[in-house]
């Protein structure tokens, strides 16, 4: 499905080592699936945020670059996307989000 993107647009690299997600998927989701943010891609489209927050964090700059090309984002928008996505990934690490604090669960 992503062959044309890989072949003609040079989007064949993986976004994160050890995971099957390709750069081409970002472009495809932006063009055909209304993916409008980096957080949307890493959380809903490929779910990398739920699998490995560190890998998702490392993939963010490339995800944002591809989305920026697809949506003609300004440098300001790219910076905002990076900050929002980093804040989102921090919620996975925050003890404030833990349901139980007594150590028994």
Describe the structure.
This protein is mostly helical. The protein has one domain: Alpha-glycerophosphate oxidase, cap domain (Helicase, Ruva Protein, domain 3, Orthogonal Bundle). Helix content is 61%, strand content 0%. Helix 1 packs across helix 2, helix 2 crosses helix 5 (53-71) and helix 5 runs antiparallel to helix 6 (75-90). The longest helix is centred in the middle third of the chain and has 19 residues, at 53-71. The chain is globular.
Radius of gyration: 15 Å
Mean pLDDT rating: 88
H/I helix tally: 6
Q: What top-tier CATH class fits best?
A: Mainly Alpha
Quantity of strands, as a count: 0
By secondary-structure content and strand pairing, the structural class works out as mainly alpha
CATH architecture: Orthogonal Bundle
The dominant shape is globular
Distance between the termini: 43 Å
CATH fold-level label: Helicase, Ruva Protein, domain 3
Low-confidence stretches: none
- Helix amount, in percent? 55-70%
Q: How much strand content do the residues show?
A: under 5%
Main sheet properties: none
What count of domains describes the coordinates?
Answer: 1
Order of helices and strands: HHHHHH
CATH H-level homologous superfamily name: Alpha-glycerophosphate oxidase, cap domain
């Amino acid at each position: 499905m992503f062959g044309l993107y890989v072949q003609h647009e040079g989007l064949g690299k993986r976004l994160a080592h050890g995971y099957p997600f390709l750069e081409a998927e970002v472009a495809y989701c932006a063009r055909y699936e209304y993916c409008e943010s980096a957080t949307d891609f890493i959380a809903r489209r490929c779910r990398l945020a739920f699998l490995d927050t560190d890998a998702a964090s490392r993939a963010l700059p490339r995800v944002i670059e591809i989305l920026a090309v697809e949506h003609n984002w300004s440098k300001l928008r790219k910076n905002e996307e990076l900050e929002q996505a980093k804040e989102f990934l921090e919620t996975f690490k925050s003890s404030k989000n833990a349901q139980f604090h007594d150590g028994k669960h």
